[in-house]
From TrEMBL:
SUPFAM superfamilies: lambda repressor-like DNA-binding domains. InterPro entries: Cro/C1-type_HTH, Lambda_DNA-bd_dom_sf. This is Helix-turn-helix transcriptional regulator. Pfam families: HTH_23 (PF13384), HTH_3 (PF01381). It comes from Pseudomonas qingdaonensis. The lineage of its organism: Bacteria, Pseudomonadati, Pseudomonadota, Gammaproteobacteria, Pseudomonadales. Gene3D superfamilies: lambda repressor-like DNA-binding domains. Residues 30-63 form the HTH cro/C1-type domain.
Length: 159
């Protein structure tokens, strides 16, 4: 079963279980869009998921767990227990603090263009720099290109 079908089934079940008409959930989104969702003809965005699930008196997380349980082989409870374990590991690994660094003044923090820097390589280059090696000697010692050393030479740890 696809996720579209799962969303349709959960939406229909919740709405009919509460004896709600499409019009009564109309504050969350348009009647046409709700109909398309219930017929599995449209995908749902996170913003719409939040609005619709709130209109149905349910958290978006519960709605997603129900949808995944319908489309997969695990119960909503099992999925939520797995999610709790993953959240615990994420927090233990410092993920919450790292997540906070992704935002600045209510927007996504800016970052350097291109792919992320290999922190181990950056640290190695900066150690060679601190030891007084030249860029050329650093490239030779680490077995990386002079251009890469040149780019990393100007950086600081964590940038």
């Amino acid at each position: 079963m696809t996720l579209k079908l799962g969303v349709a089934a959960v939406l229909r079940t919740l709405r009919s279980g509460q004896r709600l008409t499409i019009e009564s959930v109309n504050d969350a989104t348009s009647r046409q869009y709700l109909t398309q969702l219930e017929q599995a003809k449209s995908s749902i965005s996170l913003e719409k998921l939040q609005a619709i699930s709130t209109a149905l008196g349910m958290s978006p997380l519960t709605f997603i767990a129900l949808t995944l349980s319908v489309t997969g082989e695990e119960s909503a409870q099992t999925l939520l227990k797995t999610a709790q374990g993953e959240l615990d590991e994420f927090e233990k690994a410092g993920g919450v603090q790292a997540l906070q660094h992704q935002f600045s003044q209510g927007a996504v923090a800016s970052r350097r263009p291109g792919r992320p820097v290999d922190q181990d390589r950056l640290n190695s280059v900066l150690r060679c720099k601190a030891e007084g090696l030249t860029q050329s000697a650093t490239a030779q010692k680490l077995g990386i290109s002079k251009q890469t050393v040149h780019e990393l030479w100007k950086r600081e740890v964590g940038l």
